[in-house]
Structures
1.
Amino acid sequence: MTRRLYFLFAALMLCLIVSCTSVTNVTTAGKHPLTEEKPLMERVEELVSKGDLKGALELYEAENGDDKLLYAILLFNNSRIDDAESVLSGFLVSEPENLDALYYLSLIYNMKGESDNEEKILKQILAADPDNEEANLALGKLYYSKKNFKQAETAFKRGLESGSLDNEARFGYAVLLMKQEKNDEALKQYDTVIKNDPENMFAYIDRGYLKSLKEDYEGAEKDLDVAVKLNPDYIWNYVDRGRTRLYSGKYEEAVKDFDRAIEMDPDIFICYAHRAKAFEALGENDRALADYKKALSENSDYYYGYLPTAMQLYRAGEYKAASEYFLKAYDAEQSQTFILLAAASMMKDGDKFNAKQLVKKHISEIPRDDLMYHISRVYIDPPYEGIAVRKVDEEKIPLTKLQGYFYLAIYYDTFGKSVLSEDFFSKVVEFDFPETLEHRIAEWKLNEIGE
């Protein structure tokens, strides 16, 4: 069998191992243009090059071709997998070290989902030829599918060093590097993938994600713009670009992307969660609350949404529901501050007894030298207020001091002590930590007082 013909089939097999689907059969109309002058191998090669795999097999069987390896490959390409395996197994009895035959047998095992047999054969090939390009790449893909990333990386690197890494394998290698958080190396591989295949949408998506991690939001957005152009019907392009725009402060544009994604599929909860964040940043809190509620109605286990939903419910005066979500946030993150927020919400809802019992239940979890212990004591024993205020005034760490003033302000607010609560909320805002939940709620309360 000529090396050129083997090469044609090798190209076909590489597609097969990546897609795990059989090559579509194409038959020519009428009789095959056979001439007695041309050798059988040459006629088969012509049919294969035209994509007429069925015709090539029929010709080879009709003329009793005697190359068993070629026959097995033709059977394989015509979806006669079991027949191909039988012929290859027979061939390997007489030529057990034929690396081409072993490689195609590994492809058969890949198609049949027999990964252990595939791995065994590929290792057999590499034991005889450690630098075998096809076997190294196939083994890398196999290890990747098994989530054995370290061995997959080793195999891919061998292919990279030999210069044999095809673009699809390189893409897999880039994904592997990204999963291992080797982001700079992954970016280089995606650059090459895109250079070789400028219409690879998923390469732009992944590269955009990596650029976003490096806070190169402009570069990330450009990549996602390309992804949208390549496939405007792929919903996750809008989700990813919307998220990138959200991170870069382009809130109105982010909302438009999430609007488009929700229009395409109204059941994807994360779209509502992200749009809610954009609405919050735009000061559209009622719309943010509606989106948080929708996100959690679609996925009640989305614990990242518990705290912002609780905060918005508190702002909106839905105190009972707010306390429930603050407690959910506590269950997810075990932060004592959420207990105090839940208790304050219960107090605002008129349930002072259970609020006090809640703080009593959890105060033992806090070290006695922790500022939050002294704040919590106030919720249980109001006369302790003077000691707690002194502890807050003496606190040296700005963020901890801010929290102390805030949770006292919330406490005063629940009992209608408006002058004290306004004073302490003002102190919280003066610390200028706008990213904290304490700062945001304090601003809401001050705006509410000022109306």
2.
Amino acid sequence: MLSGVRRCGKSVLLSQIKDELFNKYEVSKVSIGLSFIYTMPFNITPVVGVSSIAHLKDAMMAMNIKLTKKEWYKLYLLGKHKLP
């Protein structure tokens, strides 16, 4: 995140939840974001561009993270989505 950038309510909550998950699973926030996508109830295959080995490792680590339903829904609802 850029320093000095102000964030509003939902963005702050999203960042806090990502921090919690980052600490729980001991992976990067990028890995948490990708694991959210991999956990979607329909088939999505992200195309990940990597410019370093670290980016590739983040993408690979995301495939091993199994978010709980509660964790996934927290991220989903904070992304301004509504439940069907």
3.
Amino acid sequence: ILNRSATVFVANVSVSELLRLRGIHFYKSDFATTIRDIADKWEINRNLIELEVTETMAMENMSLLTNALKQIKSFGFQVDIDDFGTGFSSLGILSAMNADTIKIDRAFFKESSLLERDKEVLKSIIELAKKLNMKVVCEGIETREHVDLMKEIGATVAQGFFFDRALPLPAFLERIKK
């Protein structure tokens, strides 16, 4: 996984590397040590690597996942919960997975005008995550209205087409040089 990736350093700006994992990775008993060894071999700072898991993976085998994540975190890697709020979310996931970041799924931002009830749910998720010392990222931010909603619910980090489309590495490097 890591040997195809690299952390980018340009003009003293570091960019963390994000790796999306599938459930099958966690069925390998040496998964965490393999990731650690690859990062060390390539001299990649472990705290710049974010391993992304979905709440659906947690629902499939919470025990196996939490054991693997405990070892991954002990090695200094960051853990993100992606697509939070889709499927059958459980607040227990936030505690059991001991993640660093929660990424609120874009489905919350699909409707141009959320009901007040939806906004309260989002506010509560953000407040709880902050109390658990987790970073919060809102995914799928595509319009000015989405940005305004983020401000209203107390979110401070976003990703989405409102800011830019995905870029090939050369275009990205050129952009951050400016």
